[in-house]
Design brief:
The protein has 316 residues and is of the alpha+beta class. It has 13 helices and ten strands. 41% of the residues are buried.
Length: 316
């Protein structure tokens, strides 16, 4: 059977290196945000490595490869450092193994539309084998990973829009309001209405939503060559599909529930993302595609290290 012939590439082992991860946490090194998750046993929350809260004792800390793994182990997201609102691991955008391909499809909303059986069919593996590989590499199965993706989309809509919470639930991909309420409570240790109230004091910090028009801040790991990227897009722009100016890039989108359009404007510490969607259920998928388009999850230090070792490229 196909499942018996599965081979995978050994994933980055950073999160398994407890001593190194703890040094990163102690230094609050933001370069590692999104590359692993820190969870604190005594508080029951998980954080990004650069969380500004007091550094917990080493014996009280656990590390996970993804937020879904932390959630599956009973930890809740930190409301201070917002660990899900950071660049993700760059590996899922460049690796071609099963785990990386599954992560890209999950981010694109495949589980919400087709379920785990549909995800497995697209990847060419059995549901059982898929679950075993993802749990081994990412600490969580496909359902938990999709749940974390839905929770992130829901948080964006709760915090940035005035949509009725019932509409937020279905726009984020939940099958019922009850499932939506339970997930928000388990992941964020609060209710959707309380999460919205908590975000009110930070209104405008991350963006806003009006109808199906959205404005978001997309973080990246510096340095980010915005000028070079816009020049690259301008050289290959498709008429009628893409439009590039010295300050921004815009294009149309084809999404699962309709068409959309996006305008991306680089800022010193983020990219301003203005989206127009036919259906808000495509929010998570659209944001994932835009992040891949701009390679916002890239690790510049790793890129520099690899290219710098090449005799032909190092002088550049």
């Amino acid at each position: 059977m196909l499942g018996s012939m599965v081979t995978t590439t050994e994933p980055p082992a950073l999160w398994r290196d407890v001593e190194r991860c703890y040094r990163v946490v102690t230094a609050r090194d933001s370069r590692f945000d999104g590359q692993f998750i820190m969870a604190v046993r005594t508080t029951g929350i998980y954080c990004r490595p650069s969380c500004p809260a007091s550094t917990p004792k080493a014996q009280n800390v656990r590390f996970f490869p993804t937020s879904a793994a932390a959630q599956a182990n009973g930890f809740r997201a930190c409301r201070r450092c917002l660990p899900d609102a950071v660049p993700g691991s760059p590996d899922w955008n460049v690796r071609a193994d099963l785990a990386a391909r599954a992560m890209r499809l999950i981010s694109d909303g495949t589980v919400e539309r087709e379920g785990v059986p549909g995800l497995a069919r697209r990847l060419g593996y059995s549901e059982r084998q898929l679950g075993r590989v993802l749990t081994a590499e990412l600490g969580a199965g496909p359902l938990a990973l999709a749940r974390a993706h839905r929770a992130h989309s829901a948080r964006l809509l709760i915090e940035l829009s005035e949509l009725p919470l019932t509409d937020v639930a279905f726009a984020a991909g939940f099958s019922s309001v009850r499932q939506f309420n339970e997930t928000i409570r388990e992941v964020f240790a609060t209710t959707p209405s309380q999460l919205r109230a908590f975000a009110a004091s930070r209104r405008g910090r991350h963006g806003d939503v009006s109808g199906t028009r959205l404005s978001l801040r997309l973080p990246f790991r510096p340095p980010f060559d915005a000028v070079g990227l816009l020049r690259f897009f301008a050289d290959d722009a498709l008429p009628g599909v893409e439009a590039v100016t010295p300050e921004s890039y815009a294009r149309t989108l084809r999404l699962a529930h309709g068409t959309g359009a996006v305008r991306l404007t680089p800022r010193p510490d983020h990219v301003r993302c203005e989206l127009v969607l036919t259906d808000l259920r495509d929010l998570g998928s659209a944001v994932s595609r835009v992040r891949r388009l701009l390679d916002l999850d890239a690790d510049p230090a790793a890129v520099t290290r690899v290219l710098g070792a090449d005799p032909a490229l190092a002088p550049l």
